[in-house]
């Protein structure tokens, strides 16, 4: 069976003469259309998705004339680009902002491949991707999240590209929806401490709401050379968090229902999901039915000793409850309602089945928000917690922990959202570090987003003994090196967020068995 996209590709190939090639497009043919780089994603044993987008004028809608455009895709078995194994005509789809999504099939497991796109007189860099392999004895994975364009440069991505992991796991806040800030330093007083943050570069315009806006914002982020390098070096698996649409949204509810009508929110969500698809190496476009929209992001991936469950904790969750206390809020009776869900019933069932059936040495839960509990007040008061994270969904976490505690091998949560690095142990009674240990969690610091609540967390550390390492002062990402017996995490941090070429070093290297 051909899927819709393969049909389009096939039709374009058969009727290639009907498509105007880039070389023949008088108004753009002298301009490089590959301003946004290339990417690969969703690595499987025999396939991978390859992505690019034609955008000679990236910050103003892309600048392409109307109509689909044929693009040449070359695939190689060597990094010198000499052993060519495919020469395909693929299609930049006008309705997708001239994005190209190609599923490359028939590949061998656990192998590197190289690829480049060609349009007219222009060609992309030679990208490297890699298929997964359940029999591999080792996996090297990277974790990234929270890359506010304005808050810092992406030196972390240059370092990640140099490492070239088997796969990059991105758990969200790939873009931020907010408007333009003001260049330079500003001070913020938080938890009795005065902090200085910097706006190093500006967003392109005010808060984004339309498809046009979301496309241009994704394009802005994709122009970053270090981000492009990290995409060109490894396949990625991606699932959005909140800022790809709007801060702290939940399912059908925006954070600020008084500022946007339900109709405006639903239109905005369609635009955001569509633009996200158009800029990511993912297989399926959003399903749009009238004003309802959804995008399948959760999925199962296998890298040798690690089975990765990529979760979507935003699209199907119950709305947040208990008010807006920040960073921690005292609980309310509503929080404990058994019907409150973080994953939605279908995803939860899928996850629990996958965990129970797994034969992997390590079982990874890639979640946007922290699964580890964190209280911001002293025991024995009822814990004041962040109700946007799993702490706000106690019954859902209880159901998950019951499954983990029932024989799942070495659960390791890898999470983002909170802009600070942490290494934690998960316990059957979440807030009791003396109760049985059922897993570990590594929270990646943000690539660039600031952490004004770092001081509040530091002051509460002694009341969270299960969090064994914490750093909210540095930006960076995590490297995971995994074999059948050992999980090792390196917290990579950048020396200077004001410097796009900053040095990046290891703040801590730790094995799960040493926590
Ligand atoms: Fe964030
Ligand atoms: Ca977030």
How would you describe this structure to a colleague?
The protein is of the alpha+beta class and 515 residues long. It is 17% helix and 28% strand. It has helices spanning 4-14, 155-163, 211-222, 225-233, 262-278, 345-357, 394-404, 454-459, and strands at residues 38-41, 48-53, 69-76, 84-92, 99-104, 112-119, 122-123, 127-130, 138-144, 167-170, 184-190, 193-199, 235-238, 287-289, 292-294, 299-303, 306-310, 362-367, 411-415, 421-427, 437-443, 467-471, 476-483, 487-494, 504-511. A nine-stranded mixed beta sheet has the order 5-2-1-13-10-9-23-24-25. Helix 2 runs parallel beside helix 4 (225-233) and helix 3 (211-222) runs parallel beside helix 5. It is globular and about 70 Å long. Fe (iii) ion is lined by residues 146, 173, 243, 417, 419, 449. Residues 146, 173, 243, 417, 419, 449 line the site of fe (iii) ion.
Can you count the helices?
8
- Kindly report the average pLDDT value: 95
The proportion of residues forming helix, as a percent range, comes to 10-25%
The 3D shape can be described as: globular
Instruction: Identify the strand order in the major beta sheet.
Output: 5-2-1-13-10-9-23-24-25
The major sheet is characterized as: 9 strands, mixed
Per DSSP, what share of the residues sits in E-state strands of 2 or more residues? 25-35%
Q: Any idea what the radius of gyration is?
A: 22 Å
In total, how many beta strands?
Answer: 25
Content-based structural category: alpha+beta
Give the bound compounds.
fe (iii) ion, calcium ion
Uncertain runs are 1-16
How widely separated are the two ends? 49 Å
């Amino acid at each position: 069976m051909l899927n819709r996209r393969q049909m389009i590709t096939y039709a374009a190939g058969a009727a290639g003469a009907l498509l105007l090639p880039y070389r023949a497009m008088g108004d753009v043919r002298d301009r490089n259309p590959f301003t946004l780089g290339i990417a690969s994603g969703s690595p499987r044993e025999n396939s991978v998705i390859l992505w690019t987008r034609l955008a000679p004028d990236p910050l103003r809608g892309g600048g392409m004339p109307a109509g689909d455009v044929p693009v040449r895709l070359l695939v190689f078995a060597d990094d010198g680009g000499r052993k060519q194994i495919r020469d395909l005509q693929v299609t930049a789809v006008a309705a997708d902002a001239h994005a190209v999504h190609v599923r490359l099939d028939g590949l061998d497991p656990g192998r590197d491949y190289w690829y480049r796109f060609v349009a007219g007189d222009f060609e992309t860099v030679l990208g490297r991707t890699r298929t997964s392999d359940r029999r591999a004895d080792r996996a090297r994975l990277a974790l990234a999240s929270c890359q506010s364009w304005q808050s810092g440069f992406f030196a972390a991505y240059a370092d990640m590209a140099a490492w070239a992991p088997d796969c990059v796991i991105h758990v969200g806040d790939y873009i931020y929806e907010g408007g333009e800030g003001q260049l330079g330093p500003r001070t913020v007083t938080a938890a009795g401490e005065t902090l200085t943050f910097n706006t190093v570069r500006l967003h392109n315009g005010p808060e984004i709401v339309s498809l046009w806006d979301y496309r241009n914002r994704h394009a802005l982020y994709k122009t970053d050379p270090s981000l492009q390098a990290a995409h060109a070096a490894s396949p990625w698996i991606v699932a959005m968090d909140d800022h790809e649409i709007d801060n702290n949204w939940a399912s059908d509810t925006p954070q600020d229902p008084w500022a946007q009508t339900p109709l405006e929110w639903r239109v905005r969500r369609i635009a955001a999901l569509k633009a996200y698809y158009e800029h990511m190496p993912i297989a399926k476009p959003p399903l749009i039915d009238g004003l309802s929209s959804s995008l399948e992001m959760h999925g199962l991936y296998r890298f040798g000793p690690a089975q990765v469950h990529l979760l979507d904790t935003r699209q199907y969750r119950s709305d947040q409850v208990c008010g807006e206390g920040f960073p921690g809020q005292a609980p309310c009776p509503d929080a404990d309602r058994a019907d409150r869900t973080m994953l939605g019933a279908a995803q939860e069932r899928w996850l629990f089945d996958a965990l129970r059936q797994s034969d992997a040495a390590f079982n990874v839960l890639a979640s946007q928000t922290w699964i580890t509990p964190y209280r911001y007040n002293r025991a024995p008061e009822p814990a004041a917690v962040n109700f946007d994270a799993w702490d706000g969904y106690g019954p859902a976490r209880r159901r998950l922990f019951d499954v983990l505690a029932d024989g799942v091998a070495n659960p390791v949560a890898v999470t983002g959202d909170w802009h600070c690095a942490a290494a934690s142990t998960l316990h059957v009674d979440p807030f009791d570090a003396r109760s049985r240990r059922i897993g570990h969690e590594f929270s990646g610091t943000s690539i660039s987003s600031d952490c004004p609540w770092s001081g509040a967390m530091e002051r509460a550390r002694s009341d969270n003994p299960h969090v064994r390492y914490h750093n909210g002062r540095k930006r960076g990402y995590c490297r995971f090196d995994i074999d059948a017996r050992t999980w090792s995490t390196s917290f990579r941090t950048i020396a200077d967020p004001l410097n796009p070429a900053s040095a990046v070093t290891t703040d801590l290297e730790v094995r799960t068995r040493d926590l």
